[in-house]
Amino acid sequence: MSDEPKPPNFSAMFQGIRVKSFEAERMETPEDSAHKRTKDLVEFFVKTVAPLVIAYLFNAIMGGYCCVVVATHGVTSPEAKVVMPLLTSLFGGVIGLAFGQSMK
Fold it and tell me: Which pLDDT band, with edges at 50, 70 and 90, does 63 fall under?
């Protein structure tokens, strides 16, 4: 007698019934669920939090630089005329980013 398991005989189990598909799912273990939660957390930080932090940091650095240029050279200087549209668009971008994220 062989110790090998025999394959199941589905045709004998379902006589008179045509089986189109058979689907089996693996039960989720605690290690699998912990791994999935960790993966989801890392994915959340990489896809959602990191771009926001980078965008706000970039806007803060550029906005600070523009404010320093305007403060040291005056509002009517040629440097300020170049910097003011950039400063306006940066602050508009910050407002658009903040409201765009809250409306999703």
Answer: confident
Is 58 a domain residue?
Answer: yes
In the DSSP assignment, the letter for residue 8 is P
Total domain count, the chain: 1
pLDDT of residue 99: 80
Helix ranges (H only) for 1-104 are: 10-13, 30-44, 50-73, 78-102
% of the chain residues with pLDDT over 90 = 13
CA–CA separation, 85 and 91 (whole Å) = 10
DSSP-derived letter for residue 14 is T
| Dihedral, CA of residue 93, residue 95, residue 97 and residue 99, to nearest 10 | -150
With respect to residue 68, please indicate whether it lies within any of the assigned structural domains. yes
> Could you list the residue range(s) of the whole structural domain that residue 82 is in?
30-102
Extract the tokens encoding 34: 């912990």
